Amino acid sequence: MGDWKTVTMPEPLPVLDLSNYGPTSVISSLVQTLPPLSQNSYNLVSAFCTDENIGQCITYINQEISSLGFPPISSDTRGNNDLNLVSVLNVIYELLQLHKKGLRTMEDMETEQLKSSSDMDHLQNSHSKLKEQLELCRRENKSFQERERQVHLKNKSLQNSLKNEKEEVQKLQNVIASRASQYNHDMKRKEREFGKLKERLNQILIDKKDKKMAIEILNYVGRPDGKRSVWKTGKTEARNEEEMYKVLLGDYEHRLKDLMIENAELKKVLQQMKKEMMTILHPQKHGFKEKKEESIDPVASDDEEEPGENSKEYGLDLSCELAREKLTNSIRQQWRMLKNHVEKLDNQAALMQMDVQNECNVVSREIHEEEVDKLKLEIQQCKDFIKTQQQLWQQQVNSPCDEETSSLLQDCYLLEEKERLKEEWKLFDEQRKNFERERKNFTEAAIRLGHERRAFEEDRASWLKHQFLNMTPFIDRKRPQTSKHPCAFSASTEPEVRNLHSSPQTMKSVVTNIPTPKSQSSLKMPSTPDLYQTLCLIPNKSSPEIQPKRSSLQDPNVRMYSGELSTPRPRHSLNSDNYFIYCVSRDENTLK
Amino acid sequence: MNFSEVFKHSNQLCRISPNGKYLATCVQYRLVIRDFDTLQILQLYTCLDQIQFVEWSSDSSFILCAMFKRGLVQVWSMEQPDWHCKIDEGSAGLVAARWSPDGRHILNTTEFHLRITVWSLCTKSVSYIKYPKACHQGIDFTKDGRYLALAERRDCKDYISIFVCSDWQLLRHFETETQDLTGIEWSPNGCVLAVWDTCLEYKVLFYSLDGRLLSIFSAYEWCLGVKSIMWSPSSQFLAVGSYDEKVRMLNHITWKQITELDHPSTISNPKIVFYREVERRPVISNDDLSAHHSLTTGSSLFSTQSKYEVSSLPAQVPVIKPDPDRPNPKIGISAMAFSSNSRYLVTKNDNMPNNVWIWDVQKLKLFVVLEHVAAVRCFQWDPCHPRLALCTGNNKVYMWSPSGCACVQVPIAGHFQVLSLSWHTSGQSLILLSKDQLCVCYLENKDS
């Protein structure tokens, strides 16, 4: 179609060819062809309209036009062909319009045609392409199918061959088995034949009375054990059996012993392990429980210990099932506990590790706590200090403000008060010190008084004694003893006394003073209750740390006294001696 | 270490008497008895033919010489040099001869294992034992010499007979559950008999002295099985070496396996000491070529020196691939030995012929591996100390003890290749045998 169009389009269309435009578009094509006709008519006037046939032309055109629905161009009223110019022009105009319209539509149509044709082309192309693809796919599909078929075939063949192989293997196995059985059979047969031959050979050898087979020996030697060989009898057989069983029994006994030893050792190890476990577990357990429930604990732990003890005893003595079970059970239980404990420790250790890293060298807890307390105190002080500083600072800064001044003033008062209190405190302290000094003086005085009284008592006692001795018949004997007496005491008492009066401040003076009266003081014992009383007046203000020290020092001295006591006692049968010696010891006690 | 002079011998026939006093060597048809301490010849006996086998009696007062070709056994006495005894097996032939433990009977095995003849030196009595089985180790006496176990074959079945050695009375006779019994061995305490089957089947059976089957052990099936068996001196363990290159230790209470000792080709455990023999050819400088020097070092000039070096781990053990088409393939544990104190076990794997493996029996772990330049020919523990001597067919003796190891060159001129060795009962000297020579190697006393 395109080809055809391209040929026709450029050429001016001849009128007669109009019919070629297809039956449907006869009118439009006529309309279309008219304008070029009119144009051409200028040149081809002769062809259509001449002077001669003007009327005919007019009528023809008129007819044509009217058939086309235009108003007639000529008034046909008179049969003359008068051209109605107006109508002609109108018709022409309309025709022109129509023509133009037609042209336009034609153009549109052409473009449309072009478009559609290109579309068509495109579609055709795509169509063909798709067709090709389809074809390709089909081909591929075919090939795949083919391949699949081949694979199937192969598979089948392989399966077949596998089956064959299997059969073959089976066959071969059967063959092997049969061969093996055959071989075994043959072997047996051969062996049997061999045996028979051997037998035969043996028989022949025996029958032949082989002369060659012999032993040539110079003389028979004795048996290594020196015994003669014995006849083979039933007895020997029985003895052999017996011996064999003896050997076996011996072996079993030996083995049993070994096992027993091993068992015992293992048991020992078990026991030891158990004991160690208990020792490991119990202190820990106590500590652990004490924290929780101090009152209930001891009973519970005792209860737990008991079965363990029992089983231990059993285990050592017997190895009966029950004891063993008990032992193993208790061990298992303890082992579980130990395990738990170890796990707990592990956890703790994991937690502690950081702390440990911080303080590598271990500090005892008390020191640590003390340190912490100190530091806390310091922190508190520092905080206070900072607070006061802040307050002061604020006071300075906010001095203009009224309310703040009041508060500041208040603070000032407080501070002042503090100062005053401090001063008062100091005063008070001084007073206290004075008091203490006075008290000391007083005690010293009291002691001195006591000594003096003692001296006096002594004097009195000696006097009384003198008197008494003068009355008794032992005068001559007593003399040397009295001289001995004080020195024995002085040796022992002097250090003693020093210790007694070792109250730190006054010690020196007392020590220098006392030794001389000491010998007397021991004689002045009846007055001790008084002294005691006086001493009791001294308030227990003396620092408590010193007391234990003294007591510790004193104890051995007391013992020393008693040691001294034992020697002089047989010498004097006198009660009075014993008496004052006792008093001395009591005196020490009271002095505490 | 001191070495004696060299003596001749033939057929590797050289035995020290059980009491350690005498050394018997055979030179062709002559039997030479020497005093071991002085090596002076005490006696010289002449046999009727070339001697093929020599054995001392247990009390060292007799020695037997077997001449299998002639079917003859000759016995000589140490105490009475004039005394002589000749046993002729006649047409029955002779393939093996051995002393009974009492030293007064000789057990001769005839050809084709037709029978065993028991000859007495005390009486005229002769006894026969029929149907002995021809196998690797078919006859075994207990250590105390009281009983004899003998493998028999009748009607294609294996039997074991136990005899009382004092009067050769049959004590027990029982059938064994074996296909084709290969060997039997008494435990050192003489109460348990280990029996193993043919190599085609891994099967070890334990029989009590009274013939009860105690246990059967089988590690695997369908492969070549047991190759060697060895009791520990304490009878506590039985080591079973097999073709799968493993040693399995069985205990004496349950007869079950305690452990499996593998012989890996790569040793990587750092606890194992790997000694490797390193050869060094002597560097000969111009000075050494002087006549004087070459005279003194003449023998060692052409030989290589070697020493053990501790190899860094992991180390590779050279492995020989056995030929699968040949029977008795060279693979698996062919030789094992416990040290005298049962503390160590030495093994040799046939496809690693240059190596010797020493195991710690206490820990049941590999302890030391020794690797040599040549294949190990023979090894033997010192009967008194944990000390191992071995040879590889060259002119060196190798010694190992827990404290270390050493290789010593035998300072003998000429060609002295140590093919085998054997310890003296005192553990203080060692006999080294080359193809036709022997020398005694004296070890320094530890005390001196």
TrEMBL record, chain A:
Which ranges are annotated Polar residues under compositional bias?
500-511
Pfam families (UniProt xref): ADIP
Q: Coiled-coil stretches, from where to where?
A: 120-207, 249-276
Q: Where does this one sit in the cell?
A: Cell junction, Adherens junction; Cytoplasm, Cytoskeleton, Microtubule organizing center, Centrosome, Centriolar satellite
Q: What cellular component terms from Gene Ontology apply here?
A: adherens junction; centriolar satellite; ciliary basal body
Q: Which of UniProt's keywords are assigned here?
A: Cell adhesion, Cell junction, Coiled coil, Cytoplasm, Cytoskeleton
Superkingdom assignment? Eukaryota
Q: Name one GO biological process term.
A: intraciliary transport involved in cilium assembly
Matching entries from InterPro entries are given as:
Adhesion_Centrosome_assoc (IPR052300), Afadin/alpha-actinin-bd (IPR021622)
**Where in this protein does the record put region Disordered?**
282-312, 477-511
* Keyword Coiled coil belongs to the record: yes
Q: Does the keyword Coiled coil apply?
A: yes
Entry's family note? Belongs to the ADIP family.
What name does UniProt use for this protein? Answer: Synovial sarcoma, X breakpoint 2 interacting protein a
What organism, scientifically named, is this protein from?
Answer: Erpetoichthys calabaricus (Rope fish)
